[in-house]
Known about the structure:
By secondary structure, the protein is of the alpha/beta class.
Amino acid sequence: MGTGKGLHIQMFSIHGLLRGKNMELGHDADTGGQIKYVVELCNALAQNEQIKQVDLFTRLIRDKSCSGDYSLPLEQINKKFRIIRIQCGGRKYIRKELLWPFLDEFVDKTIKFIQQEKKVPDIVHGHYADAGYVSRELARFFGIPFVYTGHSLGKSKKIQLLNDGMDINDINKKLKIDHRIDIEEDILQFVNLIITSTNQEIEGQYSLYRNRTLPTYQVIPPGIDIEKFHPYYHDILFNNGEKEEALFANASVTRELERFFQYPDKPIILVLCRPDKKKNIQGLIKAYGEDYELQAMANLAVFAGIRKDIALKEDNERDVLTQMLLLLDKYNLYGKMAIPKKHNFEHEVPELYRIAAKKKGVFVNSALTEPFGLTILESLACGLPIVATHDGGPRDIISNCQSGILVNPKDTRAIAQAIKNILAHQDLWDEYSKNGIMNTRKFYTWENHVKTYTTAIDRLCQEYDSSNIQVRKPSRSIGYRLSDLNHILITDIDNTLLGGNEKELGALINLLEKNRNHLGFGVATGRGLESAKKILKAHDIMTPDIIISCVGSQISYGDTFYQDKGWETHISKNWKPGPMAACLKRINFIQPQENSSQSPYKLSYYMEPGKDRLARIHHVLTQHRYLYTLIYSQDKHLDLLPYRASKGKAIRYIGYKWGIPLKNFLVCGDSGNDEEMLKGDPCAVIVGNHSPELASLKPSKNIYFAEQFFAGGICEGISHYNFIHHAKGEI
């Protein structure tokens, strides 16, 4: 790690509605300042010589209701920055609160992408809790630092919603808030560095969490594009093409506003935000509607996202937009209040700030909670003074910029009075305008942000390396190791790997250790994970790279026995162990095995051989439409698994996830619960002591019946297939 070769950073912002240009801010509740921040941060990092590569991962969306831009698997923004889109949970757009069940799929496919490129990043950086979960999983797997930016936190939101009178059951049903909070607590336990925009985030939001004291925090305020958001009194600073775009945008916005206003020359009170209840748009309209003096002084322009039909919006947005229209009518604000249906962020929004500034107006952010407030900075950079909530980020911004007034967002009279104070006093307006222009350039440039960011990240990487000397070596980081491997030997434990003499086992282990750099080692067993670990340790067998346990219903990796949650998510579909176990109680010729043999994805029984017994079990289960995989082995072990689970399916999944062709697996077994994995594309070895259950298999190109028993048979199979030479690339 470090800046010698440049840092490779992978950013994560999961929900999907982001792109390199002309972002659709306000498209819905998920397209606010966060996506703008992330894309601009990546762009700015790519300009820094210490950065080698920046990848921004998000969800691929192919949906008629969304732009086709979101369906591009890879969008190259510039030489060092690209957006990578990963499909999970189908292709339709899904709001972020409904994405939780699909995040393990996202992790899996990201690992596959990394493996295909053979480029493991130096750090992963997650934005918002869902991306924090994904980043944490990747960081643990690859043994790399994990950086997190929350943007907003679940506990703060839960408190606010409860204070607003919402029922906790409704909150969880719609927003999955308690699950989000649990994930955030887990993130705090494992994260290496949390980046916040303000001190208030640390003191007022993270302080609510049980694990708040565990992470290291660093405050790095975001930057803005000071060329795009130049002062209102400047001549346009662009080249001819950009100048024409800006002039057209200015004319378009002016025309749109004049369509609403009876007296368009009045100063403008400008609002620009998503139609979200916490943005408190209704509080500002109420403040304006109840103050006739303020109505006489200025017009009100509310740009609340992008909409075509309010009836098609999500509940929260629809309620806010409907309330806006009702308040406009209640206070009879026709001719005084503009509520345009759309705006173009790339060109129209900067012009909107400058139009309001030229008219000596005010920008208002009356949100109930505001983690930061990028629109505040943009308006200040253009020379437009602000009135903003006294919560969160605006406190730091006003402290640095001295360019506006903070108010209690629930006090409508205070909001109205603050706006009037600025509008009525030209000297105060001029002072705030000048301070905003000067101080945004002093405190809030991307150049400053990136300088601080890269210093913090480089220091983190160096500290991480020095405290984890072996962390990037194959013996410690299973993610790095599997990314480099292209051949893997996987064997059953009982009566295949173990059961013979120690000399043959020792010869096999020596062969595996000698060729460890190019050959992976795994076991696939009916034992549970703890039982498998215990017996391998008892025989002084090195920790496998992969343990497929519980007859294929669990996959673990490396020294840390990292659980493959993607596999568990995959096999859990339509798995109903409780009802199945209850259903099987009526069958008197099976007995449940001891609890240690059971697992969340395996029901284990003892059953003696008998005529039509398996048919009877199938009949009982299928008449209730249960989906399952049944494995009977050694004339006594009966295992029921999810229908997607088995040793063979687990191996296919590992091959897909890690980009390893199935023909590059050597699988070894002796009994019926190995049968499925011994068939198909992998090279199969059936040891000489195999049970009669495998009699249906015949020798073929991919199935070899060894003469030697146990570990000796495995060595014989390795020799038969010339597997070591293939792994070395010598054939």
